[in-house]
C-alpha cells in the first residue's frame, strides 16, 4: 500500500526510479536546440573530425569575410607586382650591336678579346674611354656584328648604357666599332620572375592568414558567428517601403531645388534693381 505514496514522494524529492524509462524516452524525442548562427544543413558533429573551428556556423558571414579579404590580398599582390617591376636587377652582361667602323675594314672583334668602352666626345667623331670589358660572344650578321660583353669595369660616374662605341684594348689598330642604338643590359634573371615570386608570396601568405582567421582562430570565429546571429535579427525593408522612401527623397530634392531657384531669382532681381550687382555689361 505504500508503493504509490513512496513513488510519489520519491518523484517530489527528485528520485524517480519508477519513471526513468519514460523520462529517457521523452528526452530522446526532444531535438537538440539549434545553435545561434548555425544552419541545420551545415551543422556538423563536433567530434574533432574537422580541423575547422565550429564548422557550419556563421557560414555566410565567414564566407563573405574571406572573399573580401581575398580581394584585398589580390590587390596587394598586384601592387607588389608593379613595384617589383621597377627594381634594378644586376646586369653583368651587356649586348652591343656594332654596325659600322670609323675606318674602312672590319672591326677586329672576336670572342675573348678585351675591349674599351667609349662614349661620344665633345667633337664629332671623337670618343672618350669610360670603361673596359671582355667579349664573350661575337656574332657576325649581314649588317654588322652583335657582341655580348661581361667583366664590365666603368670609370667614375659612368654607366655601361652610355657606351657609344667599342675599341680593341691595347691594340695599335685605330678601328672603332660604332654602336647602333644603346647598349642593353642582360640581367641575371628576367624581372618577371622576381615579380611572380613577390606576388605569389603575398597570395600564399595572405591565404594562410585568412584561413587561420576565419577558420581556426576561436576569438575571430566566435565574433563572426555572433555577427551572423545578429544579422538574422535585422528587419529588412520591404519593396513597398523602399519605393515609398525613394519617391519621398526624389520629390523633396526637386522641391528644395525649386525653392532655391526662386530665392536666387528674387535676390538677383532685387539687387539688380537697387544697383548692387550688374547682370550684364553694356557695349
Mean pLDDT: 82
Low-confidence stretches: 1-16, 29-46
The helix count comes to 6
Radius of gyration computed on alpha carbons: 42 Å
Major pleated sheet? 6 strands, antiparallel, barrel
The strand order across the widest sheet is 1-4-3-2-5-6
Q: How large is the share of residues in beta strands? A: 15-25%
What helical percentage do the residues reach? Answer: 40-55%
The span between the termini is 126 Å
Count the beta strands.
7
Shape: flat
**Strand pairing plus helix content: what structural class?**
alpha+beta
Q: Could you give the order of the helices and strands?
A: HHHEEEEEEEHHH
Task: Write up what this structure looks like.
By secondary structure, the protein is of the alpha+beta class. 43% of the residues lie in helices and 19% in strands. The protein has 6 helices and 7 strands, in the order H-H-H-E-E-E-E-E-E-E-H-H-H. The protein has helices at residues 3-12, 20-29, 59-84, 191-216, 218-231, 239-273, and strands spanning 93-101, 114-120, 127-141, 144-154, 165-168, 176-179, 184-186. A 6-stranded antiparallel β-barrel has the order 1-4-3-2-5-6. Helix 3 (59-84) runs antiparallel to helix 4 and helix 3 (59-84) packs across helix 5 (218-231). The radius of gyration is 42 Å and the shape is flat. The chain starts with a helix and ends in a 10-residue tail after the last helix. Residues 1-16 and 29-46 have low confidence and may be disordered.
